[in-house]
Design brief:
The complex is a heterodimer of chains A (814) and B (108).
Chain A (H helix, E strand, L loop, with lengths): L10 H8 L2 H8 L8 H5 L3 H9 L6 H27 L2 H12 L2 H6 L7 H18 L2 H17 L7 H13 L5 H26 L3 H18 L5 H14 L2 H20 L9 H19 L6 H4 L1 H4 L3 H9 L4 H22 L4 H8 L2 H23 L3 H7 L5 E3 L3 E5 L2 E3 L8 E3 L3 E10 L7 E8 L4 E7 L2 E2 L2 E2 L12 E8 L7 E10 L6 E2 L7 E9 L14 E6 L4 E9 L9 E9 L8 E7 L5 E8 L13 E8 L8 E10 L9 E8 L13 E7 L3 E11 L5 E10 L7 E8 L5 E7 L16 E9 L3 E12 L8 E2 L11 E8 L1
Parallel strand pairs in A: 4-13
Antiparallel strand pairs in A: 1-2, 2-5, 3-5, 5-10, 6-7, 6-11, 8-9, 11-12, 11-13, 14-15, 15-16, 16-19, 17-18, 17-20, 20-21, 22-23, 22-29, 23-24, 24-27, 25-26, 25-28, 28-30
Chain B lengths: L4 H23 L6 E2 L4 E2 L10 H21 L4 H20 L6 H5 L1
Antiparallel strand pairs in B: 1-2
Helix pairs in contact in B: 2-3
The chains are: A alpha+beta (814), B mainly alpha (108).
């Protein structure tokens, strides 16, 4: 398998590198969700084209030029068609020139939609050549070309209406006899059938089945992307008006108007249809059909290139009939060039969809969303589901993040394993497409998506601004209240993620203050529950970020392949984690536990814990599986700062313990502790709760305009404290409104209260920026980090505490 | 469709004028490619510069194809078609160079 394409702008390229042409055709029937996004939703012909080019060059740049040259072959075919249909070399020449200047082709070079018209024009050319020569060989070739067209891109089948219009006129004018028409219908059909059977037998490829799947997915795509029918009727026309070349579209409209006028003015036998009339009316019918069928909703600059390249023909007909035709074709061509250059300089036609987006987490999510949809579609097709039933899969999950946002629904996506929509393999991406509605202007908010296990441990996360169509949308002014927005992002499951159940949660917060926007009364919303299986194939340990690689078999079933401690060195002030990477020598038969110990020089264990090997039963681990587990290490604050031996042993359910294995020396460090009160500007003697005292503070003004306050509080633990408390420092105006605040654990989290020893003095610094004005009151206190309940304040104050907040002093800011 | 030469010329010139107005709208970033309510819009990126020589060469090639081609198509059809084909091929390569992402990056 050669998977080296970057998929930046054209997934067909990497798919072509990955598979051989035969594999491409054979794999297509399974709609492999591991394929790049565009490969999934398209017929395999585009991948095959790259595979045809590959023997000639492996240089992507040369391939790009080759695609432009291939696309330009359409100009020669258009020349041939016009020359034979209208018999005028000037019309044909101008069509050739204008074909090459159609803006939408420039916008999307070298995306393969620019090659689609060549196959369509080849069919039309063979059809026209047959009308001239009446030789059946052209019809056989037409049948083959028709197969290739559908294999590459079936959308241009809509231009069949132009074929029909030309056929009608040719028959009416006596250019084709009934026998000729009979052959025209029979021979291409037989040729098509022959190629169809040949591909089916030789490559196990069913063109009709593939076409049906692509058509169904197009409908599902519109549904998944919330692309409604009516908004796109006008928007598609507007976009096409520019992308097809404004002068060409206007001239076409003028031609249509004139034809209707002439037809209306002529009576009876005077109403005569010519070939140019047939072409223009056929093009009108095709455009109308494509527009109102509503299959393509958006991106018509790219998807309707095959239509746009036909618009030069009416323009060429009109220009060739004017006296200064060479000058006029120059004017029209120059206008098309200017339209193209201006748009290429400013609009992200390819970038926004691919390159730039690919570097954002949203790209992976979109891929995953589409892969998920295709997987579902496979299931739907097998089970006979309809699109309406699929719509029901888009579960409503309305949650309001007061007061700013409403989350309407959040369908999960990924490469689901089996029939379930919630089972994924480690290493895959899990994405969520959030449909949200801004309710009220507010501060810029960030979305944090987290993968947490049943015990609340976080395993993966993304933290990003919400996006609208892949564009960062952090500025509230851009949010239009009431409109539904789509934000797609994903979390990559670590390849060594332990198998088990996880929750995919969303937290919305203000990055400026860190304040969480509550969803109802909850800080987070569970978007999905995911069952994770081991990565397949298992990751190579060399590719994992294992701090210390090992290879130590601990039993006949399990071996350690590495370890790491976080933080390193360990600190009693913060919860530590021991990471152990296991490999299953064979699938474990029993639920082991792990004994973890830190041993001092005297052989005493300063830390000892017995924890399950993994959150879920390890009997799901396959032989060769690599799993990176996390084991919390909470050290007693009194553990001395020094080196300890880390000892690991496996414990079976029957109590059998493997020989303890001394892995390494682990360093423990602790913050410097003091038990002496310093000299303070403002000594106090205030008790908070039973075990904490505030003995005083110092306050300095600094900064421009002296509006920055440096406050140092001096706390003392009367006894060991088991709970975590946060310090609040509020600056309030006379009306009681908070004008500045800080809520943190003591010493900015460096000296959390449960690590305070009896008698220890903790200097706790805070910096506050206060707006000019005042007088303000400076209030402090403590509250439980878990419940938010404030600690009761007792004694030693000039004024009684209000709401268990201590008034330190009044301040004025110039 | 092919009668009234003067009116046809006028229509073509007006069509070109409207085309330029549309280009002006894109230049001012006032034209929306897509639909916000339809949940898809092509974004505008910071304007990149188009080397003047490219525009000059492109217009020269276009002028040559249109003027010389018109004069010679009746007498030297194949040569003219081949020459114009090469001309427009070169025009396409040149115009694509304006796009801020290299061709090979787009292929990959």
């Amino acid at each position: 398998m050669r998977w080296c394409g970057s998929d930046q702008a054209n997934g067909f390229y990497s798919a072509a590198l990955r598979d051989s042409p035969i594999e491409t055709l054979a794999r297509y029937k399974v709609l492999d969700p591991s394929s790049p996004m565009h490969v999934e939703g398209n017929m395999p012909g585009k991948t095959l084209l790259f595979q045809l080019l590959e023997p000639f060059t492996s240089d992507p740049r040369i391939m790009g030029y080759a695609i432009i040259a291939l696309s330009t072959l359409g100009a020669l075919l258009l020349y041939g068609i016009c020359r034979r249909l209208f018999g005028d070399p000037w019309v044909a020449l101008y069509a050739l020139i204008l074909y090459a200047l159609v803006p939408s082709r420039f916008f999307f070079f070298p995306i393969l939609n620019t090659v689609t018209p060549v196959l369509m024009l080849l069919c039309l050319y063979l059809f026209v050549v047959y009308m001239d020569s009446k030789r059946g060989v052209w019809l056989w070739l037409l049948g083959c070309a028709l197969y290739m067209l559908i294999l590459f891109e079936p959308s241009p089948l809509a231009t069949g209406l132009i074929f029909m219009a030309i056929l009608l006129v040719a028959t009416k004018e006596g250019q084709l006899s009934k026998e000729d028409v009979g052959r025209l219908l029979l021979y291409p059909f037989l040729a098509f059938l022959c190629v169809y059977v040949a591909f089916f037998v030789l490559f196990d490829f069913d063109l009709v089945g593939a076409f049906s799947a692509v058509l169904t997915e197009a409908g599902a795509f519109n549904l998944a992307e919330s692309r409604g029918y009516w908004p796109w009727i006008g928007a598609n026309m507007r976009e096409f008006f520019y992308a097809a070349g404004t002068p060409l579209v206007i001239i076409f409209a003028y031609g249509v108007a004139r034809l209707f006028h002439q037809w209306w003015a002529a009576k009876g036998v005077g109403r005569r249809w010519t070939m140019d009339t047939a072409f223009v009316m056929g093009l009108l019918a095709t455009f109308t059909a494509v527009l109102f069928l509503g299959i393509n909703r958006g991106e018509t600059s790219r998807l309707w290139i095959y239509l746009a390249v036909l618009f030069p023909i009416p323009a060429a007909l009109l220009i060739a009939a004017t006296p200064r035709r060479s000058l006029l074709v120059f004017f029209v061509g120059s206008t098309l060039v200017i339209q193209s250059v201006v748009a290429l300089q400013r609009v992200d036609f390819v970038l926004s969809y691919n390159c730039q987006y690919q570097h954002s987490p949203g790209f992976e999510a979109e891929r995953a969303t589409l892969a998920s949809f295709t997987t579902r579609l496979k299931g739907c097709a097998a089970s006979g589901f309809t699109l309406d039933e699929l719509r029901q899969c888009m579960r409503a999950q309305e949650v309001v993040f007061e007061p700013y946002l409403r989350l309407n629904s959040a369908p999960i996506s990924g490469r689901f394993v089996g029939d379930g929509e919630s089972t994924l393999r480690a290493g895959d991406a899990v994405g969520v497409t959030i449909y949200w509605t801004p309710l009220q202007d507010g501060p810029p908010l960030k979305f944090s998506r987290r993968l947490v296990d049943a015990s609340g441990r976080q395993w993966a996360s993304t933290d990003d601004w919400p996006r609208v169509n892949g564009v960062v949308c952090d500025v509230p002014e851009r949010w239009r209240r009431g409109e539904t927005r789509i934000d797609r992002q994903d979390v990559r499951l670590p390849p060594d993620l332990p198998p088990g159940m996880y929750e995919y949660t969303l937290v919305v917060y203000d990055p400026e203050t860190g304040a969480i926007v509550l969803a109802g009364e909850q800080p987070s919303v569970i978007l999905a529950k995911i069952n994770v299986l081991g990565a397949m194939p298992p990751p190579d340990p060399a590719t994992l970020a294992i701090p210390v690689p090992l290879d130590i078999p601990l039993s006949e079933e399990l071996a350690l392949v590495g370890y790491g401690v976080e933080p390193d060195p360990l600190r009693p002030e913060s919860e530590g984690v021991l990471r152990l990477w296991w490999t299953a020598l064979r699938s474990p038969t029993q639920p082991y536990q792990v004994r973890i110990e830190l041993i001092d020089d005297a052989g005493r264990a300063v830390f000892s814990s017995l924890q399950p090997l993994s959150v879920a039963s390890p009997d799901t681990w396959q032989a060769g599986q690599i799993v990176g587990e996390r084991y919390p290490i909470t050290l007693d604050p009194e553990v001395a700062a020094r080196d300890y031996q880390l000892r690991i042993a496996l414990v079976s359910p029957d109590g059998t313990t493997t020989e303890p294995n001394e892995l390494a020396t682990v360093r423990v460090e602790s913050r410097p502790r003091t038990y002496e009160l310093p000299v303070m500007d403002h000594p106090l003697d205030i008790k908070l709760g039973q075990d904490i005292a505030l003995h005083g503070y110092t306050l300095d003004q600094a900064g421009d305009g002296a509006n920055e306050f440096h406050l140092t509080l001096y706390w003392q633990a009367v006894e060991r404290i088991n709970e975590r408390y946060k310090v609040f420092v509020h600056v309030v105006d006379e009306a009681g409104r908070i004008v500045a605040q800080q809520d943190t654990e003591p010493a900015n989290g460096e000296a959390t209260t449960q690590t305070w020893l009896a008698g220890e003095v903790v200097a706790d610094e805070h910096v506050l920026a206060v707006p000019p004005g005042g007088p303000y009151q400076l209030l402090v206190g403590l509250y439980s980090a878990e419940t938010g309940q404030r600690l009761a304040v007792r004694g030693g104050m000039q004024q009684p505490a209000r709401d268990d907040a201590i008034l330190l002093e009044r301040v004025l800011v110039r | 469709m092919i009668s009234h030469p003067f009116r046809n010329t006028l229509v073509i010139l007006i069509a070109c004028l409207i085309g330029l107005v549309m280009a002006g709208l894109v230049c001012a970033r006032q034209f929306v490619f897509g639909s916000e309510s339809g949940h898809w819009v092509y974004a505008y990126h910071p304007t990149t510069s188009a080397p003047l020589w490219i525009v000059v060469v492109v217009l020269a090639l276009l002028g040559a194809s249109a003027l010389i081609g018109s004069g010679r198509i009746a007498s030297h059809e194949r040569t003219t078609v081949f020459g114009c084909f090469l001309g427009v091929l070169l025009i396409q390569f040149l115009i694509h160079d304006i796009y801020p992402v290299p061709l090979d990056a787009l292929v990959r």
